[in-house]
Amino acid sequence: MYLEDPNADSIIEAIGPEGIPAQSLLLIFLAEQSRAEIPGLIRGLNKRHINFCGGVFPGIIYGDKSYERGAVVIILPALENPFLIRGLDTHKFVLPDFGRKINLNHRKKYTAIILVDGWAPRISLFLSEIFNRLGDSFRYFGGGAGSLNSKARPSIFTPEGEFRNAALVIFTALESTLGVRHGWERLTGPIIATDTHNHIISELNWAPALEVYCASIETDCKKKITPRNFYRFSMRYPFGIYKKGSEDVVRDPIAVNSKGELICVGEVPENTALYILQGDENSLLRAAGQAARESMKRRKKEITFCLVADCVSRSLFLGDAFRQELKTVQSIVQPSILYGILSIGEIGSKGESYLELFNKTIVIGAFHG
Questions:
Q1: Res. 19 pLDDT band, cuts 50 70 90
Q2: What is the structure's pLDDT at 135?
Q3: DSSP code of residue 50
């Protein structure tokens, strides 16, 4: 359900006097402009002993529209209470012993929903550790929370409070079919990331990263790139990391620091071969349709709901055409209503492949019993 005024009273009224079923969880996607509601939500839902968790995102999705205010609220059948993992700003974070509480040998391919602080510097390491622990026991869906205006604000919340550099792992008793696409295509490359530090690229091909990147795209865009106008052009030319059997994994260069280094959303391993990608409205809309159709491959099963993690930078790139992307997806997944987030990084794996952090990508999950 979508709530324009997401306070505790409106949520209680929406879910009804009987509350949520036993062994269930209230998952809340909160839009950035409604973050002031979080303290009241925590107090009010705790007072009523409702199990909940959620994240704050640049925007939320309901049907074929996105919103900068309000909340999307979903009742999930849960296998266990959500797991909160903190300390993703270091490599010393500690994962819980999932196996002690979750049956990892179940016959059904249930789904782990992962919400993570999209600005945390160790997301890829965190996801690799999750996959090392759980492997193909689950399918995975999720996205990065956070504010476009401030990286310092907490973006994950639970009954215990609000948290930065944190993640939630939610095991739901639902199977899912996923579609993951982005529509960006190679312009040039490969270029070697010869000096990187987590999500910062210092050198490309043993030369200053900004110089190499700008020289690679200025011929195509026919403009002079400077640190001041960098994102206006870099949003059109992301990096791609080769992934066997599927589209390149996109890394979004969003800014230049005072040293002339490129700051990306998500880690870039040193000595990675990168391609510079480009796309247009048609290629991105076509990819969104492909992802939606992939998620519907098991339509013969009754779909409980559809979730989407759609990169906020896709919405910025597409502008007015972003509404068409959502309309395209909603038309394919109907009669299910689309619920989702404008995310800072997207997470998805069908269980058979490695768990990835994507940028500029759309991940669609059709959830079913």
A1: confident
A2: 85
A3: -
Question: Looking at 243, 262, 278, which one is the last position of a domain?
Answer: 278
Do residues 342 and 362 make contact, with C-beta atoms less than 8 angstroms apart? Answer: no
Cis peptide before 335 (omega within 30 of 0): yes
Which pLDDT score, from 0 to 100, does residue 60 have? 97
Q: Summarize pLDDT for 70-98 with one digit per residue, the tens.
A: 999 999 999 999 999 999 998 889 998 88
CA separation, residue 343 to residues 44, 62, 292, 326 (Å): 26, 14, 17, 14
Residue holding tokens 């500029």?
Answer: 360
* Residue finishing a domain among 231, 248, 278: 278
Number of C-alpha atoms within 13 angstroms, CB side, residue 143?
Answer: 30
Domain coverage including residue 262: 185-278
Q: What is the mean pLDDT of residues 33-42?
A: 92
Q: Measured between alpha carbons, how far is 64 from 129 in angstroms, rounded to an integer?
A: 35
Q: Are residues 211 and 227 in the same domain?
A: yes
For residue 68, what are the contacts with CB-CB under 8 A and spacing of at least 6?
31, 32, 33, 58, 59
Tokens representing 323 are 């509404």
Cis peptide before 190 (omega within 30 of 0): yes
Do residue 62 and residue 159 come from a single domain?
A: yes
Residues 98 and 133 in one domain: yes
Provide the mean pLDDT of the chain.
91
